[in-house]
Q: What sequence folds into this?
């Protein structure tokens, strides 16, 4: 039995390495899930060894799971669990009956036939958006078409154009993103958002909502790592503690990672963003080729651990967790002109700085090699973000949509344009 379990774990690890892109949810989805979790509107599929939730964002939700998520989003889980509900469905699992019953009796869901709910079938984007639109007071068949629900959800700002007839997959990460957007969306024929309604109904407090959704202040020091301490040496020179932004010019560099002071080989390394390449050498080191035309962000994955959890259907699922550490090869702050840095990652004048999967950017502004704080910022019309100068002199770009945009930094009669792609 032990040999069989070991073989299964090793197989899973091999599969994990073969398809790393399928195993990691976007920062946007993770942030959405964490916000909803803090408000008690979203639960994980289990917990990590440190007690933090496992959200399972990279798998497709069933119809029963989606309805459960919807009931939690409405703050009605307690009412659903303690209520008595009647449905015509004969195929609903016992654990899902309170949620399906509540949703059915309140007009939030229908069955797949007169007597079946189809709870084990995976849900589509349009079906989940239909659930959420109904929760906001809209009626399918009257206000929107259930099989093209994104047409209305895009119009009211619930979704942003990413869902359409061409979607072939829909994951728990999508339910988190849509649900997070829903709490800040106005209900039908009302100026009141779903969050305001939930606050009125004492599902959570205004203070809890503000704490969960407010953009945090810029940290003066980088946060502590979320696992055993990993540091890096570049060409044999150890980087200072917490300083994982290596400012340099173009070239080829040998990087050695250290885990608690010792080299190790059980890691994977990949380019997270920027121009350049990394190659694992197989001897506990990897080579970085950095052209210095923009920042090169690298992600090191290590500490691979298999977790077996029991899901809401009573089935065993084994997932591989991993710890990440980041290293950035950054071009130095220029001596002339404007530059921006995001957590120490310098960006040169006039250059776009890639996809923004986070709900906000916090940036430092430099002019002629020095950080400045008495500048002004203007954004193009209909920009998918709001731009503001904070009290500490940092530039805050708060996401409001998706698309390409430009903004201008002005200081002492000089100015420079920067591009932004908000995803």
A:
């Amino acid at each position: 039995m032990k040999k069989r379990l070991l073989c299964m774990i090793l197989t899973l690890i091999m599969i994990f390495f073969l398809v790393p892109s399928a195993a990691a949810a976007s920062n946007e989805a993770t942030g959405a899930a964490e916000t909803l979790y803090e408000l008690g509107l979203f639960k994980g599929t289990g917990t990590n060894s440190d007690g933090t939730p496992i959200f399972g964002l990279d798998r497709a939700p069933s119809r029963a799971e989606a309805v459960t998520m919807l009931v939690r989003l409405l703050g009605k889980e307690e009412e659903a669990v303690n209520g008595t509900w009647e449905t015509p469905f004969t195929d609903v699992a016992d654990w899902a009956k309170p949620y399906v019953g509540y949703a059915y009796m309140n007009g939030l869901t229908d069955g797949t036939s007169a007597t079946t709910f189809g709870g084990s079938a995976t849900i589509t984007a349009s079906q989940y958006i239909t659930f959420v639109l109904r929760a906001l007071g809209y009626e399918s068949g009257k206000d929107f078409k259930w099989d093209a629900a994104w047409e209305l959800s895009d119009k009211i700002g619930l979704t942003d154009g990413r869902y359409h007839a061409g979607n072939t997959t829909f994951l728990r990460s999508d339910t988190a993103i849509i649900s997070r957007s829903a709490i800040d969306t106005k209900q039908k024929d009302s100026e009141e958002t779903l969050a305001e309604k939930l606050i009125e109904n004492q599902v959570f407090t205004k203070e809890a909502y503000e704490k969960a959704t407010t953009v945090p202040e810029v940290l003066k020091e980088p946060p502590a790592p979320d696992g055993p301490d990993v540091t890096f040496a570049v060409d044999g020179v150890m980087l200072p503690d917490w300083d994982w932004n290596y400012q340099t010019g173009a070239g080829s560099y040998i990087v050695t990672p250290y885990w608690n002071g010792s080299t190790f080989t059980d890691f994977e390394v990949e380019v997270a963003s920027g121009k350049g390449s990394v190659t694992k050498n197989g001897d506990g080191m990897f080579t970085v080729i950095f052209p210095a035309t923009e920042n090169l962000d690298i992600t090191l994955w290590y500490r691979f651990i298999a977790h077996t959890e029991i899901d809401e259907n009573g089935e065993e699922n084994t997932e591989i967790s991993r710890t990440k550490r980041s290293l950035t090869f950054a071009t130095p702050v220029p001596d002339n002109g404007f530059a921006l840095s995001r957590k120490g990652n310098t960006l040169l004048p006039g250059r776009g700085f890639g996809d923004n999967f986070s709900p906000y950017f916090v940036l430092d502004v430099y002019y002629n090699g020095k950080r400045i704080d008495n500048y002004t910022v203007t954004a193009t019309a209909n920009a998918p973000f709001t731009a503001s100068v904070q009290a500490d002199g940092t530039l805050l770009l708060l996401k409001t949509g998706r698309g390409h945009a430009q903004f201008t930094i002005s200081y002492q009669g000089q100015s420079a344009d920067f591009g932004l792609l908000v995803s």
Q: What stands out?
A: The first helix runs from residue 2 to 18.
